[in-house]
Give the backbone structure.
Amino acid sequence: MVNSRSGRSKASAGFTLVELLVVLAILTLLAGLVGPRVLGQLGGAKSKTAAVQIADIDKALELFKLDVGRYPTTEEGLEALMQKPASVSSGWAGPYLKGNVPNDPWGKPYKYQLGGNGAVDITSLGADGAIGGEGENADVHNTR
């Protein structure tokens, strides 16, 4: 029987094995080309997220300094942005961040250190959690 619309018989109404294999090969080729690029962008997004979070923490530290007159000590740490330190007698108007102090995108806490010259260092050690590294393992610092 011949179908009047398509000109094909009912017996050949589906796809052939060769047609399915060609489509499967094309999809595999596309996945092989596009997949690594998408995964590479995902990794870079974590580093960018860390940089944005560090900038937010840095701004909160500036507000703390405006209110209290100094940055939190290394011992007080970033928790001073959420809870008034015992060494602060007046001026604290926190909390300075919404929620809690965030962890970096890899689930580790940010490192905070106040230098002797008043320089503030906020660091994420990257995906490997170790100093140094390249790519996703590279450290992310504030820009001061």
